[in-house]
Design a protein that fits this description.
Structural class: mainly alpha
Shape: elongated
Largest sheet: 2 strands, antiparallel
Number of strands: 2
Distance between the termini: 55 Å
Number of helices: 13
Strand order of the largest sheet: 1-2
Strand content: under 5%
Length: about 375
Amino acid sequence: MWIGNSLLFNWLDRSLQPPNGAGQTRAPVGKIWLLHSGGFYYVEKTLLEGEQLPKRVHWFKWQAYTTWLSGFALLLVVYYLSDRAVLADSSVINLTHREATCVGIGAIVLGWGLYETMQRLVAPRAPMIATVVWFGGLVAIAYALTQLLSGRAAFLHVGAMLGTIMAGNVAMTIVPSQRELERSVVEGRSGATSAALSARAKRVSIFNNYFTFPVIALMISNHFPGIYGSPYRFVLLLVICAAGAGVRYVLNLRWTYSPWKPVLAGVIAVSVVAIYLITQLGNTPQSSSGVTGPVTFADARHVIDRRCAACHSMHPSDLTFGTAPAGVTFDTPADILARASRIRERAYVTKTMPPANKTHITDDEREILGRWTSAPSLK
């Protein structure tokens, strides 16, 4: 709902028709007719100069607040309190759960604090400097997270940081500006005051608009282990953020830039190709294992029983996820053979299973699975 509102109001502001002024009782900024759900809607944007404040005004804020509150509650439940999804990855760096939690929370707070500092103290005087510092901070924080947390957690925490900035824009700039705008109407202050307040709220609303697509992509990234599990995940994270913001930028230009469709197609195509090529670079396993000679099914099953069956079983010994994740079990030879290609992809190629290497699978054991899944058999 929050992102839908952002897209709708951004579209409205760019689609408003200028008023003709004839017979107007007020001075609207613009107006538009809409057709939806079997009816016509007339929308008019105005600053209510010299008029009374309506008795009932609908605010758009709780969508932002509930989104952030529910998101932070999920971080608490899934990562910080229960460790259901592992924050720290021993194959990346050895951190305790408490240390990894501090890294995650610290990154969110640091990113939001840096943005607010630039937004309030630097941007009004030197917007270009503020922009450079903010993007530099985003790159540095994203790099640090990918070096300190599991890939999945790093992507989600960058998304949470951007989401926190968006919610902060609503709570600390947009809503206070709108309250002040209400007071200026009630007190009958000059139109210049109302216009300045409106512009301040709209400026950060546009910032939020550019964050929407990157945040969506990062929040669903946990379903794509080939992305967050890539050895080039930091680069992929930046490409995803740039692609989302780039698509949003082109869509915002379409009112004033006629060839926006081929440009949009180009941005999407370049982004998809870049993501594909980068993921392919990471899909060539580099093994320093000492495993030599043929590998049998018995060898592979021994590894699976030790490192995978704790969760992927009809009767798992690790109850973190409750039942077997995604219904995948390795209790029988048929179960294992049916998923040989997925075992290869997740345990050998992307190395995203076991999650954050929680069962401490070794490089030699991954090599065994890789060799067996090249030509699985029951021998």
